[in-house]
Design a protein that fits this description.
By secondary structure, the chain is of the alpha+beta class. Helices cover 42% and strands 13% of the residues. The chain has 18 helices and 12 strands. A hairpin with a 3-residue loop joins strand 9 and strand 10. Helix 5 crosses helix 17, helix 5 runs parallel beside helix 18 and helix 6 packs across helix 9. Bound molecules: adenosine monophosphate and magnesium ion. The site of magnesium ion has 3 residues, from loops. Adenosine monophosphate binds next to loops.
Length: 493
């Protein structure tokens, strides 16, 4: 008999309530699981016993070779539009949902292993993950969380002792990821494409229970669910753009119902401000470029709308199309409002003025023209709010190139109450000084591939407090030295 309390207090609603939406499955055997990163703070938030997880037994659980008590490991099925083309059958090809726990705040959270071996949905893939991409997801996801952006979280990363072949031999790894749920636009698409309306309804009711409980049992709840998802996506994408994040693979299977960022593949933070910025080696057409993210989010939401049509008006499809199209038409305004509110905060503005958008656009145009670093510029602006414009001016080629814009902004700031010191502090609390700079992420991943985790730990520590300037961290606060050349992430995940 096992005298130890179970590691997780699982309560597996997906396995229980959504039979036919998954395949029960087990992780593959691996030779030598070893925990390389563990998120003690998140473990505590989830009500888990951190000490019991940071053990050899914990490593076996995180590698997927030991099924902890109460788990019901399963691979979820979903479909998705990938780069615009529909794949009717995707699903967890290398992931397993272990189960769900209720966290300390009473929120239901999925515990998922990514890289735990092939499943019936692997479509010829090996079902595995390698250390670089696993750590990238860990680092960038945790950085996004620290920036206050809704995201899946990383609970642990283990190496497996296996050698996996990608562009060459790589150390195998598994990520344990925590999410409000793994429901995607693609989950709805899978059943809608097969004409299984009852299943789409069952899924929508499940999504409502999980993400929009206030809608349960109300009239018109499926259209309202759509509106809720749309609002969350508008807020999310605005947050991405405000911080300079490029997701890189905004396929509908990577678009969550919860509004969390999911699946960090060829993602990156921009250095110079450029709406056309693309970092993914497979995004040849720039479909998922930095500045296209709002348009793509709306496109993805249109796919969700299609999948929900039969629920929105079961008797009159034309009517359903009309109603959901009208709803979807609100997306650009929702996005613009979310973005502009965020941009006001970045500029230290509390009140709303009519020409704030124009003020912001004028700044962005200058940044784009002169290839100015996005993160550095906003941080320098807070010094300018307190009277020191040198840091802003030095980012531009002309000695007083920003003079006109700065005086326009200063006049606008004068319409606000509060003193300059308050403004500076307020701006510094929304404009990060430390974001996951591409060269720093690469440097840390390269070291980890050879077994040296010191740079990963240092980077995680820096990114955990992105707004607080600290001594000795200058190398994290700027773009890569030019000799490193342009940056690309490869989709060999
Ligand atoms: P992603 O690019 O991680 O969002 O994955 C897209 C789809 O490909 C999902 O269905 C994944 O499960 C699947 N997939 C990605 N990599 C692998 C792999 N190495 N083996 C099996 N399936 C994979
Ligand atoms: Mg995915």
């Amino acid at each position: 008999m096992n005298a130890n309390p179970p590691l997780f207090q699982f309560d597996n609603s997906y396995a229980r309530d959504l039979q036919g939406f998954y395949v029960a499955w087990e992780g593959a055997k691996v030779p030598e699981p070893q925990v390389v990163l563990f998120n003690g703070e998140l473990a505590t938030e989830l009500g888990l016993d951190a000490a019991a997880l940071e053990t050899t037994y914990g490593a076996r659980v995180f590698a997927g070779i030991e099924s902890p008590e109460g788990a019901s490991p399963l691979a979820q099925v979903y479909a998705g539009h990938q780069f615009g083309g529909f794949s009717p059958q995707l699903g967890d090809g290398r992931a397993l949902l272990l189960g769900e726990v209720i966290d300390r705040k009473g929120k239901r959270r999925d515990i998922q292993l990514k890289g735990s071996g092939p499943t019936p949905f692997s479509r010829g893939g090996d079902g595995k993950a390698v250390v670089g991409p696993v750590l990238r997801e860990y680092i960038i996801g945790e950085a996004m969380h620290a920036l206050g952006i809704p995201t899946t979280r990383a609970l642990a990363a283990v190496t497996t002792g296996e050698t996996i072949y990608r562009e060459g031999p790589k150390p195998g790894a598994v990520l344990t990821r925590v999410a409000s749920s793994h429901l995607r636009v693609g989950t709805f698409q899978f059943f809608a494409a097969r004409g299984e309306t009852d299943k789409v309804r069952q899924l929508a009711d499940y999504a409502i229970t999980r993400h929009d409980p206030d809608l349960a049992g109300t009239d018109d709840r499926y259209l309202k669910l759509f509106s809720s998802v749309m609002q969350r996506q508008a807020d999310l994408i605005a947050r991405w753009v405000l911080v300079g994040f490029v997701h890189g693979v905004m396929n509908t299977d990577n678009t969550t119902i919860s509004g969390e960022t999911i699946d960090y593949g060829p993602c990156a933070f921009i250095d110079v401000y450029d709406p056309a910025a693309v970092f993914s080696s497979i995004d040849h057409g720039g479909r998922y470029a930095f500045g296209r993210q709002p348009v793509i989010a709306q496109w993805n939401l249109a796919r969700l709308a299609e999948a929900l049509l039969a629920l929105i008006d079961p008797d009159d499809l034309d009517k359903a199309v009309e109603r959901v199209t009208e709803e979807l038409g609100r997306f650009p305004d929702l996005y613009k409002t979310a973005w502009l509110n965020g941009m006001r905060a970045k500029l230290g503005l509390l009140n709303e003025h009519e020409d704030d958008r124009d003020l912001a656009d004028a700044l962005l145009a200058q940044m784009q023209e002169h290839e100015v670093d996005y993160t550095l510029l906003f941080r320098a602006l807070s010094d300018a709010a307190a009277g020191d414009t040198d840091n802003v001016q030095s980012l531009f080629p002309e000695p007083n190139g920003m003079g006109a814009w700065l005086s326009r902004w200063t006049q606008r700031l004068e319409t606000e109450t509060g003193n300059a010191a308050d403004t500076k502090q307020r701006m510094n609390s929304v404009n990060p000084i430390y974001v996951p700079r591409n060269h720093k992420v690469e440097e840390a991943l390269t070291a980890a591939e050879t077994g040296d985790y010191t740079p990963v730990h240092s980077l995680l520590n820096v990114l955990a407090e992105p707004f607080a300037e600290r001594d000795g961290l200058d190398s994290y606060a700027g773009p890569a030295p030019e000799e490193l050349g342009p940056y690309r992430t490869f989709c060999g995940t």
